[in-house]
């Protein structure tokens, strides 16, 4: 009878392979559609080919794992139907069911472990973006004179603050997190006006583990010129881990109002 049950389960699996194929197709289609929509929203964000390929492959992986997980749940019900329809001993079939549960749990855990926190956030009012990996901000903003900006016109000589708010994912060590911050400013021709590899050297990058935001103060002034546009790049990275947030925004230097 046990061989018969094995045979029935095998037949069920072969019979339902089309369900697995359909789930993989539609889950990957949904994942790719979401990927295309996100990329179209951030079409002006420059991503290197290698990084683009990596993000796309992770998208496919997540879609495939989701489809496989849904099929595992569905097939467990098929196994249960086979077991319940047979009056023979449930000892060995019980082991089969336990094995199926283990496989399902393995797929679920693999799905969780593969979900790396990575993506892009954008402030639609200023165009400020945050490309993040393993360290994720809830929102990004520009602040000047204590007010959140809805524009990128900065009076020459003024300072503004680039903020990543409600940041999660920084690795703690001895009750502290350790963060680096680089700042690069370029003119419209791509010429570097400023390049600071790390503004938070030594203990300057040590913060309490409960810190919820990362910010960088950006000063304007010579050799900047009025009515010129400048590209500002600020990158924060986790010195205790491999997380990173890369911020980009274009500002326009204006005369003091």
Structural class, judged by helices and strands? Answer: alpha+beta
Supply the number of helical segments. 4
CATH-scheme architecture of the largest domain: Distorted Sandwich
Shape descriptor reads elongated
CATH class call of the largest domain:
Mainly Beta
Distance between the termini: 89 Å
Percent helix = 25-40%
Radius of gyration: 26 Å
| Average of the residue pLDDT scores | 84
Q: How many structurally independent domains? A: 2
Strand content: 25-35%
The CATH superfamily of the largest domain bears the name abc- transporter (atp binding component) like domain
CATH topology of the largest domain: Coagulation Factor XIII, Chain A, domain 1
- The run of helices and strands is HHHHEEEEEEEEEEEE
Instruction: Summarize the main sheet.
Output: 8 strands, mixed
Number of strands: 12
Transmembrane segments: 20-38, 59-76, 96-112
Keywords: Membrane, Transmembrane, Transmembrane helix
Care to describe what's here?
The N and C termini lie far apart (89 Å). The protein folds into two domains: 2-114, no CATH class; 118-254, Distorted Sandwich (Coagulation Factor XIII, Chain A, domain 1). The protein is built from four helices and twelve strands. Strand 3 (139-144) and strand 4 form a beta hairpin. Helix content is 39%, strand content 30%. Helix 2 runs antiparallel to helix 3 (49-84). Strands 1, 2, 5, 7, 8, 9, 11 and 12 form an eight-stranded mixed sheet that branches. A four-stranded antiparallel sheet has the order 4-3-6-10, with no helix packed on it. Residues 88-93 have low confidence and may be disordered. The chain has 257 residues and is α+β, with helices and mostly antiparallel strands. The chain crosses the membrane at residues 20-38, 59-76, 96-112. Keywords: Membrane, Transmembrane, Transmembrane helix.
């Amino acid at each position: 009878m046990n061989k018969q049950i094995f045979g029935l389960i095998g037949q069920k699996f072969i019979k339902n392979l089309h369900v697995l194929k359909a789930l993989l197709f539609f889950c990957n289609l949904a994942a790719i559609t979401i990927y295309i929509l996100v990329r179209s929203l951030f079409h002006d964000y420059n991503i290197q080919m290698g990084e683009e390929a990596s993000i796309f492959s992770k998208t496919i992986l997540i879609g495939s794992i989701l489809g496989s997980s849904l099929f595992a749940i569905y097939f467990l019900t098929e196994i249960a139907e086979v077991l319940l329809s047979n009056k023979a001993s449930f000892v060995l079939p019980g082991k089969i069911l336990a094995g199926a549960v283990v496989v399902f749990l393995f797929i679920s855990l693999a799905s969780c472990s593969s979900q790396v926190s990575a993506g892009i956030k954008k402030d639609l009012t200023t165009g400020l973006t945050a490309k993040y990996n393993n360290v994720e901000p809830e929102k990004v903003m520009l602040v000047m004179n204590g007010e959140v900006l809805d524009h990128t016109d900065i009076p020459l000589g003024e300072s503004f603050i680039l903020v990543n708010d409600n940041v999660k994912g920084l690795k703690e060590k001895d009750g502290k997190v350790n963060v680096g911050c680089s700042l690069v400013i370029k003119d419209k021709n791509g010429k570097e006006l400023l390049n600071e590899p790390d503004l938070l050297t030594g203990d300057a990058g040590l913060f309490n583990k409960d810190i919820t935001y990362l910010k960088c103060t950006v000063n304007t002034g010579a050799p900047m010129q009025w009515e010129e546009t400048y590209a500002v790049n600020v990158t924060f990275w986790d010195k205790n881990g491999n997380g990173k947030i890369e911020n980009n925004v274009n500002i326009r230097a204006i005369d003091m109002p």
